[in-house]
TrEMBL record:
InterPro entries: DUF7387, TTHA1013/TTHA0281-like. Pfam families: DUF7387 (PF24113). The lineage of its organism: Archaea, Methanobacteriati, Methanobacteriota, Stenosarchaea group, Halobacteria. This is HicB-like antitoxin of toxin-antitoxin system domain-containing protein. Residues 58-94 are annotated as: Disordered.
């Protein structure tokens, strides 16, 4: 979690270092923001917001694995049609 202290012998930390944490406008979600990257996440508790931020920042830095075909199907995505391309060619980002 973001509040953990890394071993000083570690290389560059991948977890957020400068964090802002605030209650969202609706008052029912906490918002955590990594000030260095601009990555923002939220959670129902402060702890959940920080844990979600850790995961989001790790993804920002390229950590993680690509989803499996089964995971894509569970999300309603056809793996055969899941190809990378230009945002200009996207039906979603117009």
């Amino acid at each position: 979690m973001s509040t953990d202290i890394d071993d000083p012998g570690d290389e560059e930390p991948t977890l957020p270092v400068k964090i802002s944490l605030s209650l969202g406008e609706s008052g029912d979600m906490w918002v955590a923001r990594d000030e260095d990257t601009g990555v923002t996440s939220q959670g129902k508790t402060r702890e959940a917001a920080l844990e979600n931020l850790d995961e989001a920042v790790a993804g920002y830095h390229g950590a993680g694995e690509s989803p499996s075909d089964e995971e894509l199907r569970t999300m309603g995505i056809n793996p055969e049609q899941n190809t990378s391309g230009s945002l200009d060619e996207s039906d979603v980002f117009q």
